[in-house]
Amino acid sequence: MFDRIASVYDVMNSVMTAGLHHRWRRRAADLAALGPGDRALDVATGTGDLAIELARRVGPQGEVVGVDFSESMLERARAKAPGARFEWADALALSFPDGAFDAATVGFGARNFSDLLRGLAEMARVVRPGGRVVVLEITTPTKPPLSWFHQVWFDRLIPALGKLTGDSDAYHYLPASVQRFPAPRQLAATMERAGLEQIRWLITAGGIIALHVGTVS
Length: 217
Ligand SMILES: C[S@@+](CC[C@H](N)C(=O)[O-])C[C@H]1O[C@@H](n2cnc3c(N)ncnc32)[C@H](O)[C@@H]1O
Fold this sequence. Notes:
Rossmann fold, alpha/beta, binds S-adenosylmethionine, 7 strands
């Protein structure tokens, strides 16, 4: 599915979020608390936008690796961001040694993991003790009127926009995957089970975006 939508992915993100997705990725990169010379991993990197944010922070002395299991997404990331390294990998079985990175991030990808706990545990494993794991995800507002707006946006407008791209399945999958993703408190509990501590989260964009960060123990 992600191979199929790679060519429209960036445009759809900008249309669906009115361009705000870049701001959310910048906030995720801030939570990774990287400095010049650090090493960072962006899991389920897609077309590489979050990896690009991380690369700005680690500078030329640092290193950013973006991994994904869609070659078409990776091709686009490589063309966009020569300053980061993009490799094929399954988030549920990363090939990096323990503690190889100062931080690992995942933007709008954790929702797609077939085994969330395993994906988060893999991210925690490849980060050194004291390093950070950051999860940026869409979340479902619980209180009206935002919950109404969210429902119309995700259940009606996004599938309709998806039809225009010629891949309506993918844009039906998106709201379904948001609905079944754990609420912020449950996600924090899963991060704890994955080996993270000092977990905190913030909700932004009127309650539709959650940013979680935990420290590797
Ligand atoms: C919605 S896109 C998010 C892309 C990017 N992180 C962003 O911020 O726009 C989800 C990405 O997760 C990738 N993905 C999902 N499950 C994965 C897994 N188990 N291993 C590697 N990549 C995965 C998909 O190929 C897709 O590129």
